[in-house]
Write a structure and sequence with these properties.
The protein is built from 11 helices and 8 strands. By secondary structure, it is an alpha/beta fold. The radius of gyration is 17 Å and the shape is globular. The model has no long low-confidence stretch (mean pLDDT about 95). Bound molecules: SN-glycerol-1-phosphate.
């Protein structure tokens, strides 16, 4: 993708084209044969990006995984690091996450400093991303491990003010995260309010495990949805959700 991932995302956002990303957790997808099968299923559907990340990383060297993925798929690979240690220059881009819903300095700037010089020197595309945890109905790995409280999911004005602050600080993406396996995905009214408050692409993830939830998030204004858990249980779900995206992008009424 010559124009770069962010420019592509920006263009898609401006032309109201939605994107779909699949989250691969290196710990869950550690079996190469299963991963190959999974990639085959992904390959026969319209997937825009593969995000790679997870909360618990037993092996911080993700280079072999990235190389393996590169050898088997053309889908752009975007690092979604649970911590600063998990970086690989072989990926296409990295979401340089700042956890702006929280007040933990380590995740706002601390973990960024040790990797900054290496990232700047590398060829990897770095995309500054305002990452916002939204209460998904139960404590999640991210809120526990990050020592931060999520934004209450009935407080859209806090979410939109946080997103605006992120945009004004120079972040290029806002990511609303209900947490992997969330019982309640980010509510539509919150997505709507954030969407109309900012002029940068909006990613929504966490607990999107039915096509209805995917449609709700897209209708509310998500420019990209990210799906992890559900595909670990049922890889074929990708067919349904990628069909939903296709219909959205063809501007067909799918109700
Ligand atoms: C990515 O954490 C999400 O933002 C993924 O959530 O695993 O619930 O799809 P799920």
């Amino acid at each position: 993708m010559n124009e770069g991932i962010y420019n592509h995302l920006l263009r898609s956002y401006k032309s109201n084209q939605k994107s779909l990303s699949v989250l691969i957790d290196p710990e869950v997808h550690s079996n190469k044969n299963k991963l190959s099968q999974f990639l085959k299923v992904l390959g026969s559907n319209q997937i825009d990006y593969i995000f790679i990340g997870g909360s618990l990383i037993k092996n911080p060297d993700i280079n072999p995984l990235i190389k393996f993925l590169k050898s088997r798929t053309e889908i752009p690979l975007v690092l979604f690091p649970g911590n600063g240690l998990c970086l690989s220059e072989s990926a296409d881009a990295v979401l340089f996450l700042s956890l702006i819903s929280g007040r933990n300095p380590e995740l706002l700037i601390g973990q960024h400093v040790p990797v900054a010089a290496a990232l700047k020197k590398s060829n990897i595309e770095v995309i500054p991303t305002g990452y916002m945890l939204i209460d998904g109905g139960r404590p999640t790995s991210v809120s526990y491990l990050s020592f931060t409280n999520p934004i209450p999911n009935d407080k859209p004005e806090i979410a939109s003010s946080t997103a605006i602050a992120g945009e004004l600080l120079g972040m290029k993406l806002i990511y609303l995260e209900a947490g992997s396996g969330a019982q309640i995905p980010v509510p539509a009214f919150m997505i709507q309010q954030v969407r109309k408050s900012i002029d940068i692409p909006l990613i929504v993830g966490g607990g999107i495990n039915t096509t209805e939830k995917a449609i709700n998030a897209l209708h509310a204004g998500a420019d990209m949805i990210v799906i992890g858990n559900k595909l670990e249980q049922n890889p074929d779900f990708i067919k349904d959700v990628s069909y939903v995206l296709k219909k959205f992008n063809e501007s067909l009424d799918i109700h």
